[in-house]
Amino acid sequence: MNNGKVDVLLGLQWGDEGKGKVVDVLTPRYDVVARFQGGPNAGHTLEFEGQKYVLRSIPSGIFQGGKVNIIGNGVVLAPDLFMEEAKDLEKSGHDLKGRLHISKKAHLIMPTHRLLDKAIENAKGKNKVGTTGKGIGPTYTDKVSRNGLRIGDILDNFNEKYEAHKKRHLAILKSLGWTDLSGLEETEKKWMEGIEYLRGFKFVDSEHEINNLLRSGKNILCEGAQGTMLDVDFGSYPFVTSSNTICAGACIGLGIGPNKIGKVFGIMKAYCTRVGAGPFPTELFDETGKKIRDLGHEYGAVTGRERRCGWVDLIQLRYSIMINGVTNLILMKSDVLDNFDTIKACVGYQMPDGKTTTELPYEIYDVKPVYKEFKGWHTDMTGMTKEEQFPKEFNEYIDFLEKFLETPISIVSIGPDREQTILRK
Q1: Is 27 a residue whose pLDDT tops 90?
Q2: Is the separation of the CB atoms in 218 and 3 below 8 Å?
Q3: For strand 51-55 and strand 44-48, is the pairing parallel, antiparallel, or unpaired?
Q4: How far apart (Å, rounded) are the C-alpha atoms in residues 196 and 269?
Q5: 246, 242, 274, 278: which is closest to 38 by C-alpha?
Q6: Is-above-0.90 flag for pTM?
Q7: Angle 385-387-389 (CA atoms, 0-180°, nearest 5)?
Q8: Helices and strands (DSSP H and E) totals, the chain
Q9: Contact criterion met (CB below 8 Å) for 301 and 41
Q10: Pick the residue with more confidence: 124 or 81?
Q11: pLDDT band at 127 (very low <50, low <70, confident <90, very high)
């Protein structure tokens, strides 16, 4: 019996590390690509052959002909948004119905979940988390409180189930004092169209499918959404998402045993960004931060929101590497730092009591970053095709990262295109 392995690919910072592009670079090596958590709040941008695609719920392996793509049980799916995304891809000539399988156990994001999202966020006043308002939090809340509506429910007596859930949501909205139901009917119509559209896809027991594929020797790549620091347990709580974004989430979100995990690819930017509220120790509020944002085009793929930018935080990264069991690092957006005199990396936190730590503490609000400085390389790296062309200063930066993080950097990205990717020896 030739058992395959599951490799996991995930973000090590606060999301937006460039997972979409990397999945696209790695997928040729795999037979199956699976998404294990999150919802349509995460946009993976892929660029190739002069076209730009933003994937929200569909795994990034969909562009590789003939591969199986699986939306796992840990994902929450919005039928209307899914339909929009899928139809766009079909227009560009990608056949989805044959190769995209959806777990019956994945939960559905209802139109009323979006209203709940707004109402709950509104009730928080100045303590807002900065959600994308897509209804993801309330959907996971329903899941955990055993009130969820799932893909498998579409197959049996669906309308009755839907109405019961909607009624419960409307009662909660009333108790929150939320009376604005404008647009609900319109959204519902589109949503029900999405449900009909979904019926054209193959609904599977993904845990059986994945384990059977593994038994037959297939290699599977699991794709995470968001980033480690947005994990509901280990992230900068409460400014986190509602699912487990870490490697363990792949076991839960797909139904695979931990002994099936092979490589864990951790993706990091050469600097750091964050969207929405919450702590961010290395954030820059000066011209340097603005320069990184402009050069890196740091605006949300789904929301268009400006991302907060700062230097790379190696304390936070070391923590992420530890809890994910990262075996290989992938360094993204190195080219953004091509024109800086000095590059900085955070190598310690000064705590409010004056002590310095190299471990991520419970609270990271009031820590001050301790920086190590590197000489900039002042070289345009975007056209380089092999590691030997890297400038000396960039090699020194990489060497330091590898030693400090005790993990090899296997891939370096020097631009948005699939071609601008260098596999290191």
Answers
A1: no
A2: no
A3: antiparallel
A4: 40
A5: 242
A6: yes
A7: 75
A8: 11, 19
A9: no
A10: 81
A11: low
Q: What are phi and psi of 412, to 5 degrees?
A: -125, 125
Q: At what angle do helices 184-198 and 111-123 cross, to 10 degrees?
A: 130
Q: Tokens standing for 324?
A: 């994910």
Nearest to 203 by CA among 109, 104, 108, 105: 104
Specify which residues 308 forms β-bridges with: 274
Spell out the residues 6+ positions from residue 10 whose beta carbon is closer than 8 angstroms to its own. 19, 224, 227, 228, 245, 246, 247, 250, 264, 265, 266, 267, 324
Active site residue 101: no
Alpha helices in 216-257 (DSSP H): 248-254
Among 16, 142, 313, 335, which one carries the catalytic annotation?
16
Question: pLDDT, tens digit, for every residue of 236-270?
Answer: 999 998 899 999 999 999 999 999 999 999 999 99
d(CA 298, CA 275): 10
C-alpha distances in Å from residue 319, one per residue of 29, 125, 234, 327, 371: 29, 31, 9, 14, 17
CB 139 within 8 A of CB 109: yes
In single-letter form, the type of residue at position 35 comes to R
Q: Contact at 8 Å (CB) between 6 and 262?
A: yes
> For residue 213, which of 15, 67, 425 has the smallest C-alpha distance?
67
Is 380 an active-site residue? Answer: no
Phi (first) and psi of residue 226, to 5 degrees:
60, -150
289 and 35 Cβ atoms separated by less than 8 Å: no
The closest alpha carbon to 345, from 318, 373, 376, 308, belongs to: 373
Rounded distance, CA 41 to CA 135, Å? 9
CB 421 within 8 A of CB 334: no
Kindly list the distances between the CA atom of residue 157 and the CA atoms of 113, 142, 201, in Å, as whole numbers in the listed order: 21, 19, 18
Closest CA to 237 of 267, 269, 278: 278
Would you give the end-to-end CA distance of the chain in angstroms?
31
**Which candidate, 418, 51, 400, 417, places its Cα nearest to that of 409?**
400
Using CA atoms, how far apart are residues 95 and 93, in angstroms rounded to an integer?
A: 6
Catalytic residue among 7, 24, 31, 44: 44
- How crowded is residue 352: how many other Cβ atoms within 10 Å of its Cβ? 11
